Amino acid sequence: MRFLSRCGVVIVAASMLHAPVQGGQGAHGKAAGVVSEANQAYLGTANAATGADVYDCENLETTDGGALRLRVRSGQVYLSASSSAQLEQDVDATQVFVNRGTVGFAAPAGSGIELTTSAGIIRAANGQAATGEVTLGTKEMTVSAIRGDLVLDNGGEFRTIPEGKSAKITFEDALAPSCRVADPAGSQVQRPYVHHRIGFEILAAAAVAVPSIVIWHLESESDSTPPQ
Fold this sequence. Notes:
The chain is mainly β. The chain has a domain at 68-180 and 190-222: Jelly Rolls. It has three helices and 15 strands. It has helices at residues 2-17, 25-28, 212-222; strands at 31-43, 46-47, 53-55, 60-72, 75-79, 84-89, 94-107, 113-117, 120-124, 130-136, 140-147, 150-154, 157-161, 166-171, 198-202. It has a 15-stranded mixed beta sheet that branches. Strand 8 and strand 9 (120-124) form a beta hairpin.
């Protein structure tokens, strides 16, 4: 009997050694991206590691001095130091929920990467290739169009940030939208299309918090293989 008990312990331990360490799969079961670089970064409560899958609504976070770079569809998403975000993949697009700090993206034409913020959704203009970033504060944010024009979709009201420019956007509601949770049947309720009261001002030049975002813009254009 004691022998059987010890065998059971060995079997359980072995299964734990071979279990996947990328958290979130049990809760959501759908990968929305893959980690390509990580430094002092977390997926949920686990340390982020190169090659790890990122699942729908899994919390992504970087510490002071950290950074996280993801392969998302045919593009890339970048979290600077002291930043937090979540991914949510739909059929036609991947939403990147910007919760805190600076989040950038490099999107080849038709990649469907969108940044969802307290002031609306930011995407490439006319589905073209674009590189940009958002730095989010308590009740304001800066959106920079590094390559290509960006569009802010504020509940059906559209504002354009031209290439090489930044926009300072102020808003009253400091609560950002969050990921949807599937119901027991597996379907997701459509998120309301909300119009926000915002202030919008185009600045003289793009304020780039992450200079390396310009470098990997071209990498995203040349690599069109989405994560598996």
